[in-house]
Design brief:
The structure holds 2 protein chains of 2 kinds. By secondary structure, chain A is an all-alpha fold. Helices cover 52% and strands 2% of the residues of chain A. Chain A has 3 helices and 1 strand. Chain B is α+β, with helices and mostly antiparallel strands. Chain B folds into 2 domains: 265 residues, Naphthalene 1,2-dioxygenase Alpha Subunit, Chain A, domain 1; 115 residues, Rieske Iron-sulfur Protein, CATH 2.102.10.10. In chain B, the strands form 5 sheets. Chain B has a 7-stranded antiparallel β-sheet with strand order 12-18-17-16-15-14-13, with helices on both faces. A 4-stranded antiparallel β-sheet of chain B has the order 5-4-3-6, with no helix packed on it. In chain B, α6 packs across α7. The chains are: A mainly alpha, B alpha+beta. At the A-B interface, α2, α3 and β1 of A face β12, α6 and α7 of B.
Chain lengths: 108, 411
């Protein structure tokens, strides 16, 4: 049983908690270090639930997210992170792209 | 809509833009300014030390006492920006009047005064010298003349500009000209959430800048990240539908494909906000300088403010580029993308998608530049060959040369 939990109706997504990451840097690192089949599995699992996830998250101000909703929120940010890998590139990194390690984010 | 009608309506195939600006010519332009150390030094002296430069946003100096530091190696200095107790903006060289040490060492903060760590000299937010330890040991110390060295500073639509020339040849308003006037009223101040990246590239600053001043590369370099956002079957080469050149600034209005097919996650993101590939449709009253031809095919305007500041305005979001020269073949590139503060977590997800997609496209943009620079340095070719839709590249090189005078001096 994982220590951090998702809201009750989204517990099926708890197997993806490794993607609950706070910063763009962490999410990007995790994407770049993951195999494409794992990225795709996470993408498909999340996409299948987003019609329920987004209205659920819409009820919370960003500053007032309960812990369980915050982890669900981080999973959606990871979905945004991996979407181009699945939808555009068919590989974890940008095809023939500039080294993302050199493209430094100063935001979270 | 038939293909012909579409072409005519979008105006992307019917206009020959260089005919409107015959003084620019149509021939090739020299590569030398992108590799020459002599040219680079002239750019520093005659452009960067003489011109208004954007160094930040007013939100970085929200309250009296707020400050930030902008290092400007291209101008051989470091600059302190402050908001004084009276609310006025100030800019100073970051240099102690005593023995020349750098006064402020952190990048930003809030304070009542600045104290040099070398011998404890202290300066107010307005730059005035306030306190000198062991003052009586100095002979004839004229404290009122020993403040921090001021730099001209002004703001426009919340953007803070400085000018290293103590007697600028033009005001900031004159520098921004009609391009600036046309953008006034765009809700820059409402788009407060900023996501920023930076990188140091081994390429001349003009090689970077030129990469963003034409859309010709879109169907090739961005065939994966943006396969149909800025191209269509009727506009396969991403022809921009409007160009406007001013004295040194310029603008290109970029075509957006109304038939763009969003990906599954993009579709989810679109429910909660604007992005670089979708208009918000909430901004009814765009100022006259935004989508100036009021085209239904408008995606965004690429506004370039001389010499190194780009402001790309979309409907509901905007982004900026700064290209800071470091060496003839090195540039610090800063990108910032701005959104309204997310009202809830779903809207924040939408912004995340937009910024990640932008980042991926930027990683494609940056991918060719170091290789390009290395080949420019080979000297195998002496000229760039430009087409009509690369008008801004041509104009950009021309206005730089007009100030640098490298070829004028040799003629």
């Amino acid at each position: 049983m994982p220590e951090t939990r998702l809201p009750e109706q989204f517990r099926d997504l708890e197997q993806w908690m490794a993607w609950s990451l706070e910063t763009e840097g962490e999410r990007s690192d995790h994407r770049q270090a993951s195999a494409m089949e794992d990225i795709t599995a996470f993408y498909e699992a999340m996409l299948a639930r987003m019609d329920e996830v987004l209205p659920y998250l819409e009820q919370f101000n960003l500053e007032e997210l309960p812990d369980d909703a915050r982890h669900l929120f981080y999973l959606t940010l990871s979905l945004a992170e991996v979407a181009p890998a699945v939808e555009q590139f068919g590989q974890p990194s940008v095809v023939d792209g500039y080294d993302i390690k050199r493209f430094v984010a100063t935001h979270r | 809509m038939t293909t012909q009608a579409h072409n005519r309506d979008s105006g992307t195939n019917s206009t020959v833009w260089h005919e409107a600006y015959p003084e620019l010519g149509t021939g090739p332009i020299p590569i030398e300014p992108c590799i020459s150390a002599e040219y680079f030094e002239l750019e520093r002296e005659r452009i960067y030390k003489q011109t208004w430069l954007n160094v930040g946003r007013i939100e970085q100096l929200y309250r009296p006492g707020d400050y930030f530091v902008k290092d400007l190696p291209v101008c051989d200095t470091s600059v302190i920006l402050t908001r004084g107790r009276d609310g006025a903006l100030h800019a100073f060289h970051n240099m102690c009047s005593h023995r020349g040490n750098k006064v402020v060492w952190d990048q930003k903060g809030s304070c009542q005064h600045f104290t040099c760590k070398f011998h404890g000299w202290s300066y107010g937010l307005n730059g005035g010298l306030r306190f000198v330890p062991d003052e009586e040991r100095f002979c004839d110390l004229k404290k009122d003349r020993l403040g921090l060295t001021p730099i001209r500073v002004d703001a426009w639509e919340g953007f803070i500009f400085i000018n290293l020339n103590p007697t600028p040849t033009e005001t900031l308003t004159e520098h921004l000209g009609e391009l600036g006037a046309g953008l006034e009223g765009y809700p820059f101040a409402q788009l407060k959430t900023c996501y920023a990246w930076h990188t140091e590239l081994k390429a001349n600053w003009k090689v970077l800048k030129d990469a963003f001043h034409e859309a010709y590369h879109v169907p090739f370099l961005h065939k994966r990240s943006l396969p149909d956002s800025f191209t269509s079957p009727d506009n396969p080469y991403a022809h921009a539908f409007a160009f406007k050149l001013y004295a040194r600034n310029h603008r290109m209005s970029v075509f957006g494909n109304p038939g763009h097919q969003p990906s599954p996650v993009e579709l989810l993101a679109h429910r909660f906000g604007a992005s670089i590939v979708r208009r918000d449709w909430e901004m009814a009253d765009l100022p006259p300088g935004v989508n100036p031809t009021r085209s239904p095919f408008w995606a965004f305007d690429a506004n370039m403010i001389f010499p190194n500041f780009d402001v790309f305005v979309f409907d509901g979001t905007y982004l900026t580029h700064h290209f800071w020269p470091l060496a003839p073949d090195r540039t610090l590139w800063e990108v910032k993308t701005y959104f309204p503060d997310a009202r809830n977590a779903a809207q924040r997800f939408s912004q995340e998608y937009s910024k990640v997609l932008l980042r991926e496209a930027l990683l494609e943009d940056a991918s060719t530049l170091e290789a390009t620079q290395s080949m420019l340095a080979s000297g195998a070719k002496k000229e760039f060959v430009l087409q009509d839709q690369e008008l801004l590249v041509r104009h950009g090189h021309r206005v730089i040369e007009d100030m640098v005078g490298f070829y004028r001096a040799k003629a």
